[in-house]
Fold DNA-binding transcriptional regulator, ArsR family.
Amino acid sequence: MPTDPPRRLIDPERVEAAVKGLGDRESVSRWADRFSVIADPSRLSLLVCIHYAGEICVSDLASAVGMSDTAVSQALRLLRAHGLVSAHRNGRVVYYRLTDATMHELIHHVRPHPVPE
């Protein structure tokens, strides 16, 4: 199989910085997987609501986003599997909270907390 011819670089220092910033391909793949999880509007809505609520139970979260409890539970299962949220039980009620610091920061950049009136 033929190899690609060498490329003429215009600015080798920028190429080196770009390659260092990119990191390993596995890391990029993990980030792409993570973004695919939050690319779904329903799951992203859940994450934003959990972020602003601090912690919230499934039925309240379902009411906030206009989804069924079952659909919310299924989405939360996926979000938990990706380490974005965690849950704790208080009696019969399970509360969810955002546990991923990067997601917390991302939500702050995309949708900052509203200023109190």
Summary: Strands lie at 56-57, 85-90, 93-98. Residues 76 and 103 are 15 Å apart (CA to CA).
